[in-house]
Amino acid sequence: MRPSPIVLARILAAAAGGAIVAASAQEDPTNIVADQMRAQGYKCDSPQKATRDPQASRPDEQVWILQCESGGYRVRLIPDMAAKVEELDKSQDGNK
After folding, report:
1. pTM over 0.85
2. 4-16 tens-digit pLDDT
3. How many Å separate Cα 43 from the centre of its chain?
4. CA dist list (Å): 72 to 10, 23, 24, 39
């Protein structure tokens, strides 16, 4: 099992010894979501923006729309499981 992005952020914060890393990880979900995708083999070399989708999200399943240079993705983050990734076509990803 892969650790969730939140667990990874906490590990990084502890390893770096500080609130600076924790604060920046909490403020910028773009890199957290992109890192999870890359860990699962998806390409997202230049993440541009991650926007939470509140209508699709649930209390334990956050859904993010991730914009990468190569396209857009809907990413469902589920604790203690691999993320569910759906590639969006151009009309859905906001890069019209």
Report:
1. no
2. 666 555 555 555 5
3. 13
4. 27, 26, 23, 17
